[in-house]
Write a structure and sequence with these properties.
Layout (H helix, E strand, L loop, with lengths): L2 H7 L23 E8 L9 E9 L10 E4 L8 H7 L3 H5 L4 H12 L3 E4 L2 H15 L6 E5 H11 L11 H7 L10 H17 L10 H4 L2 E3 L2
Parallel strand pairs: 1-4, 4-5
Antiparallel strand pairs: 1-2, 2-3, 5-6
Length: about 220
């Protein structure tokens, strides 16, 4: 059982670990990181559902591929032909997936006490909080570092033109000299985000033990 769930339901509350909350001045080298990406039935959290999750740990400035995880989630909605064309997941595939409750519990297990690395994190945040409210009746605490935000901030400082297209994961990877990848697969997108994050960190040209969470962008949420 996870410390947040213990505190939420009051189980073993005296023994429960305090929920970790990073602060901007903390050193990046001391933080645990995991890149996360969702595939969904659409872009509206109020109407759409998570159908797959990708998790990619970042350890010692490297990506341990053997520890990466891909989960397919059995949604309550039928997929449209447009959905299937984008992500390649069919109703039959989803019907064999884990339940939404199992997906949420796995998300909490894998991300607890970690900073979640995401590209345009508000999407992942909105969808997982919708699921948390549905399953637990309350949102969960989350901490993010955002590759989209990092790139936008750097472009603003350099007074470079900014567009929605220039901030896409695909194009930012190309700017960093990273290889092309197949989009719209949660695990591949999570790995691609992790690679971009490491490239962005390297672009700071700063000793790793001097980089703070603020330098990479830190977002803390209670809901």
């Amino acid at each position: 059982m996870f410390s947040f769930i213990k505190q939420l339901f009051g189980k073993n509350s005296k023994a429960s670990a305090k929920i970790w909350r990073p602060v901007a001045k903390d050193k990046l080298i001391e933080a645990q990181l995991i890149a996360v990406d969702f595939e969904t039935t659409g872009l509206d959290p109020d109407q759409d559902e998570i159908i797959s999750m990708g998790f990619c740990p970042i350890k010692n400035s490297a990506i341990p591929l053997a520890d990466c995880i891909h989960l397919v989630v059995n949604t309550e909605r039928n997929l449209t032909s447009e959905n299937v064309a984008i992500h390649g997941l069919t109703d039959d595939v989803l019907s064999a997936g884990i339940s939404q409750k199992q997906a949420l519990m796995k998300f909490i297990e894998l991300t607890e006490n970690k900073i979640i690395v995401a590209h345009h994190h508000n999407i992942e945040r909105a969808f997982i909080q919708k699921l948390a409210n549905k399953i637990l009746g309350t949102p969960i605490p989350l901490s993010f570092s955002d590759t989209h935000y990092f790139a936008k901030l750097r472009m603003e400082r350099k007074q470079q033109p900014i567009s929605q297209e220039s901030l896409r994961l695909f194009n930012l990877r190309e700017q960093q000299g990273l290889p092309h990848y197949k989009a719209h697969n949660a695990l591949e997108d999570a790995i691609s985000t992790a690679e971009l994050y490491l490239a962005q960190k390297a672009s700071l040209n700063t000793d790793e033990d001097k980089i703070s969470l603020k330098d990479m962008g830190l977002f803390n949420y209670k809901n």
